[in-house]
Amino acid sequence: MSVSAIPEGYHSLTPYLIVKDAEAALAYYAKALGAAEVLRMPMPDGKIGHAEMKVGDSHFMLAEEMPDMGFVGPASLGGAGVSLMLYTEDCDALFAQALAAGGEQLRAMEDQFYGDRAGTFKDPFGHVWTIGTHKEELSPEELTQRMAAACG
Fold this sequence. Notes:
The chain is an alpha/beta fold. It contains 4 helices and 8 strands. It has helices spanning 22-33, 74-77, 91-100, 140-150; strands at residues 16-19, 36-42, 48-55, 58-64, 83-87, 104-111, 116-122, 128-134. The longest helix has 12 residues, at 22-33. Residues 9-134 form the VOC domain. This is VOC domain-containing protein.
């Protein structure tokens, strides 16, 4: 029986989030983003050693901080070194849901020069998310012109 190099239902790139209090993170992502839990692997001490969730057609993984192994999250580092982009049909509704669940708005939801409607928030665990809906198809030339205009 042959095994696929990329598991069925996954994409080539899968974000892996490290958090303090993975149990709370699983509950937050379910409430804030409508994420479905796919897998949970608790360690003997009850902390989450590995978990997987799915939003739309995309999986992401997460685990509890393990500082002795060098795995620490944004809360311990003093900020996130990466941001996640989540496309959805109704960005306004999902953004409001994420904020109502405890997210902190960093950039208000608005139409962007690059053809998306998008807003950015920080989740309670320090990860930064941008939620957007693609509204316009633009050529590279149009993008360049709009960026120049947006930057003054």
